[in-house]
Amino acid sequence: APPQLADSRLFRNQAYIGGAWVDARDGATFAVDNPADGGTLARVADLDGSQAEEAIAAAQAAFGPWRARTAKDRAAILRRWFELILAHADDLAALMTLEQGKPLAEAKGEVAYAASFVEWFAEQGKRIAGDTLAPVAAGTRMLVLREPIGVCAAITPWNFPLAMITRKAGPALAAGCTMVLKPAEQTPLSALALAELAHRAGLPAGVLNIVTADSERSIAAGKALCASPVVRKLTFTGSTPVGRILMQQSAPTIKKLSLELGGLAPFIVFEDADLDAAVDGAIASKYRNAGQTCVCTNRFYVHDSIYDAFVRKLAERTGGLKVGSGFDAGVAQGPLIDEAAIAKVDQHVQDAVGKGARILAGGKRHALGGRFYEPTVLADVSEDMLCMREETFGPVAPVVRFRDEADVIRLANDTEFGLASYFYSRDIGRIFRVAEALEYGMVGVNTGLISNEVAPFGGVKQSGLGREGSVYGIDDYLEMKYVCLGGI
Ligand code: ADP
């Protein structure tokens, strides 16, 4: 185990199926690397589709007894899991910084955020309730029961290696479902550490199974999960193209789906905004996790009358962000996840500059080399640039000038995406008008940070289906059953 870990047993490199740690049947492993230096951290079991099917069978066997337990019983186990996650927060954060790269302070923040979903849904699970309806005929009664969907499959991304797991496993397990989870190939160590803590919390064998696989075998595992008639629901967080594939693969078995896909978040600063607050919000929403979150601002729209002041302040603050290893003190931005991520960011910057954008901060690979990129601000940006059409998923802030409210709303909505959006204004009429006009699942008004366990997180249009977190989040793991009683 890496020296950063106090509890070396949190460092796992085998998959977790039916409560046991298992190798790939053919002994295959894949490398997990440290994005800060490219060094190999571990070799992890590389499971194929047939072992994903074994995990499904384990989840199926565990489902009956797990759903039969009381919600209170399940909640007690989840509560212990929550407490263990917090008790091992330092180790989980270190492991995350090692394999994902985010600054340690951000990783600690994510541990707390991830734990909050387990706590919240442990509580919500106890509040699942049905209905008694007014009958339409004498001598009858009509009931609505709410039951767990069954075996669920989850496929999760690398940008939030813990929270994207607990946001799915929390409600699923609290509702009485069991789960097979395939974590991102870049960040399986965080997922396995979570499983180790769930095991210690007393989660019964088979209730949560972790199938690890490299990028190639992940596709096979994904196919097995989609094709299985036993798996009643698939929940996925990742890119829109992969979401489409999974939706297609799930069609033959008519699976229920929760999809949390890409975004192209606009961030609008109106002329009546508090400029300094808007710059603070811009920094928080743009550079968190080096811009690698689906709710990170992708494009800024700033009113003509304050444009020059805004870009000057934003560039000044951006230029001051310290880049380096997530373990170094004061670092605000770590490495990007892989070479493909760096190449895409650089392509977006080059394309914008080629079409007339001005670089006000950053604009190139960082002197540290490897996967480090300079936090970048681009001015004089126009709609034809790649960074305005595609999710950059990196530390680039393109800023467009606008003059008219109706115009900027049209531009903000002119995309197939509809996840997060942000705007700054102090005019109460405008705040309601714009919040209602934005075709997005989430709107931040005078804030760049919107995610927490109490809020319904999710998108409209091609940003996805369903909501995670909140009092609504558990509904995605429940089915309604109507019971009609006659002869009473
Ligand atoms: P990102 O852009 O965050 O890497 P992806 O959508 O590529 O997002 O990947 C998110 C998750 O989806 C990862 O766990 C990855 O292994 C998985 N994945 C990628 N392609 C496929 C596929 N064709 N079938 C099943 N899972 C896939």
From TrEMBL:
Keywords recorded for this protein, A-Z: Oxidoreductase
Q: Which GO terms describe its molecular function?
A: succinate-semialdehyde dehydrogenase (NAD+) activity
Which Gene3D superfamilies did the record assign?
A: Aldehyde Dehydrogenase, Chain A, domain 1, Aldehyde Dehydrogenase, Chain A, domain 2
InterPro entries reported in the protein's UniProt record: Ald_DH/histidinol_DH (IPR016161), Ald_DH_C (IPR016163), Ald_DH_CS_CYS (IPR016160), Ald_DH_CS_GLU (IPR029510), Ald_DH_N (IPR016162), Aldehyde_DH_dom (IPR015590), Aldehyde_DH_Superfamily (IPR050740), Succ_semiAld_DH (IPR010102)
Question: Which residues are responsible for catalysis?
Answer: 260
Q: Which residues cross the membrane?
A: none
Matching entries from CDD domains are given as: ALDH_F5_SSADH_GabD (cd07103)
Q: Name one GO cellular component term.
A: cytosol
Q: Where is the Aldehyde dehydrogenase domain?
A: 21-483
Give an example GO biological process: gamma-aminobutyric acid catabolic process
Task: Give the family, as the similarity comment puts it.
Answer: Belongs to the aldehyde dehydrogenase family.
PANTHER family, alphabetized: SUCCINATE-SEMIALDEHYDE DEHYDROGENASE, MITOCHONDRIAL
**Database matches in NCBIfam families:** SSADH
For this entry, the protein name equals Succinate-semialdehyde dehydrogenase/glutarate-semialdehyde dehydrogenase
Q: Which organism is it from?
A: Pigmentiphaga kullae
